[in-house]
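Problem statement: downstream parser choked on a complex file, so we are re-checking the raw output for the magnesium ion run. The parser issue turned out to be on our end (a line-ending mismatch), but while we're here, posting the original submission so the record is complete.
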Amino acid sequence: MSTESIRSMLGRDAAGGEGVVRGWLRSVRHAKGVSFLDVSDGSCMDGMQVVANPETEGYESVVRALSTGCSIEARGEVVESPGKGQHFEFHASEVLLVGGAAEDYPLQKKRHSFEFLRTIAHLRPRTNTIGAVLRLRNAASMAIHEFFQREEFFYLHTPIVTASDAEGAGEMFRVTTLPVGDPPRDEGGSVDDARDFFGRPTYLTVSGQLEAEIGALALSRVYTFGPTFRAENSNTARHLAEFWMVEPEAAFYDLSDLADLAERFLKSVFEDVLDRCEDDMAFFEKRIESQAIERMKNVIDAPFERISYREAVSILERSGEKFEFPVGFGLDLQSEHERWLTEKHVGCPVVVTDWPATIKAFYMHRNDDGETVAAMDVLVGGVGEIIGGSQREHRLDVLESAIRGQGLEPDDYWWYLDLRRFGSVPHAGFGLGFERIVQFMTGMANIRDVIPFPRVPGQAEF
Ligand code: 4AD
Ligand code: MG
C-alpha cells in the first residue's frame, strides 16, 4: 500500500509517476465532463488538485456525487499542472469514496470565524489555519527538544499528579477518587483524605519545576516539556486552564546565565520553525498577522534588552502613557505594561529582572537588597510575558523563612528543603508557555486557537 503523502507527492522531482492520493475534500467543482477535487491530507498547506473525467473509473457513480468533507482515495498519475500557483496536479484513473456522503458538512470553502470553529473542534483541524497551527506546534516541539539536546540538557519526565503546589498560588485542580456526593469522613466530620487514592490530597501539577530541580541537582541540566494545569478563572486571550510548558533547570546557573539561555533558546526555536514551516508561516503572514515573520526575524537578530524591574517601573511611570492599571514598585506588570515596554519602548524582546519578593513565588533567590528576588520575565511584542523564571533559593534557612512568609508549611516541602541540606548549589530555571510562543509565531489573537483542545472555564467538550 502506498503511503506517500501529498506533501511528498507535490515535492517530487518530476511529473509522470503513478500514485495514490488519500484525504478529505476541501472543495469540489463539477464542470461539464470534468470534476476538480481539492484533496487535503493535512501533510502540508497545499492540497492536491485531483482531476477526474468520464474516463475515470467511478466517475458517474462516485465522483459526480462527491461533496466537501468526503474522504476519498484516488489512483492515477502526477502531471504538470497548467493552472497557476501549483506545480503538479493529479489525473485520476479511479476514485473511491472511503467514508460515506458527508452530508451537511459544517466546514465550507469560506472563512469561518474562530469562535464558530471552536464549537466544532473535532473538525477544525481540517481548516487551513488550524492545520497550519498543528503542523507548526509539531515543528516547534521538535526544535525545542533539539535545542536542549544540543545544549546537553536531559529530558526529564516530571509527574502530572502531585501533592505540592509548585507556585504556592493555590490554583490547583484536585485529583480524587473519593465519591463527590458522599465522601468518607473522619470523626470530626471533615472529608477523610487519608482514604483517597493516594492516601492524601493530590492535584494536577501547575509546573514541573520542583521535580526538575531534583533532576538538575543530579544530572546538572534537565528540562521538562509537558502539560500543566491552572484553575485560575481568567477568561483572557492568553490564559488556558491546561497548557504545555517547557521548563529547563540548570545547576550552577545564576540569573544572568539563565537570561542567556532563554535568549539562545528563543532564537534557535524561531530559526528552526522559519526553516521548517515556510508555507505555513507564509500563510500566517498573509492571512493572520502581516508582521509574523518579521517579528520572528527581529527576535533572531536583535540582542535582548535587559532591564531591572525597578528601571521598568520608572520608565513606565515617566512614559506619559495612560495605562488602565496602576504602575508602581510592588505592583505586578500587566499585559498592557509588558507590551508597551517591548513594543513601544525598546522594539525587541526585553528581559525584566529582579522583581519585588512580595509578588513572586517562594522559591526565588533573595537578593542582597532584602527587597527583590533574582527573577526574570521575558517579554515579547504582541503577547507580553512569554517566559518566567528565576535563580532558585539554595540557602536552607532563607528558603524556609520564605515558605513560612508566604503562609505555606515547610513540612509540605520537606524533600524540596532536603535538596538544600544535601549538596545544595546555586541553580536556575525558567518556564516557557508553549501556547504563548505559538501565539507569537503565528500571530493568532486567541490562545484557544493555538492548542488542539482548549481547556478554559466552562469548556471541556472535546
Ligand atoms: O510564570 P509562570 O507561572 O512560572 C512558573 O510556573 C515557573 N515554575 C516556571 C519555572 O521557572 N520553571 O509560568 C511560566 C510561563 C509564563 O511565562 C507563560 O508563558 C505561561 O507559562 N503561562 C501560561 N500560559 C497559558 N495559560 C496560562 N494560564 C499560563 N500561565 C502561565
Ligand atoms: Mg509568570
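For whoever reads this later: Residues 28 and 37 are 5 Å apart (CA to CA).
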